[in-house]
Amino acid sequence: MQTLISIADFIRWGASRFSEAGLFFGHGTDNALDEAAALVLGALHLPPDLPASWFGSRLTAPERQRVLDLIQRRIDERRPLPYLLGEAWFAGMRFHVNEQVLIPRSPIAELIEAGFAPWLEPSPAPQILDLCCGSGCIGIAAAAYLPESRVDLVDISADVLQVAEQNIAEYGLQERVTSYPSDLFEALPDNRYDLIVSNPPYVGLAEMEELPHEYRHEPVLALQANENGLEIVQRILKQAKRYLTPRGILIVEVGNSARLLVDRYPQMPFVWLDFERGGEGVFLLSAADLAE
Known about the structure:
Elements (H helix, E strand, L loop, with lengths): L6 H15 L10 H12 L17 H17 L3 H5 L1 E4 L2 E4 L11 H6 L13 E5 L5 H9 L4 E6 L2 H13 L6 E5 L11 E6 L6 H6 L9 H4 L7 H9 L4 E10 L4 H7 L6 E2 L9 E5 H5 L1
């Protein structure tokens, strides 16, 4: 390993080892080279948009050992990289994660970066609800990109909300972001929201059994929803209209369960959103759509 000196050296070598090992990528990257870059930069506490001029920088002996150890663990354990690093990047922001929470990777990040335009009605202080919040990445990023907004985070798991609270504090958003332990809407105050957004569990039993090994490290509670994957989504559809303002909107990610959802609700006017960076299975409905 004495020939591995620079950041670029370790990224190249790591990518080769990952390809050789046949790893699966899907927790922030989709190929061996990007995964190796994320690992090396994360291990060195450097940002993912590091200037190219830095890639020739030499690693110290402790840094080399840390990178090598992480590369070997990624191969041996098939554990998703964000869990090894304890962090994930979402909408250009760093979030603390552990194996209690789903790893942030939703295409909804694109909507957040655009301020949910053109869908969210202009408002001096939009009220936003993030259902099944996990690490809080969606709601916290929304609060950061919409600085006048107030955001509520909801999750059924107290352990998960501890991670979300850590991320709220990380960005100093305690005055505008509040977390609630609740089974969807059950323990919420009687609030009305301009936007309800959710990345709920939506994986069915058959799909769950076919997931690559890397996904087995994520909490089942955050992935699987009954046999067909629609239980939580159906509850959201049934209850959301009570919590939306008259011009409010509902945005929900359902992934591969999209076709089954359309078959189940053939009259529902789902708007399926497109994403420049890839991703699918995210629908939008207005309060008026749900009322009908």
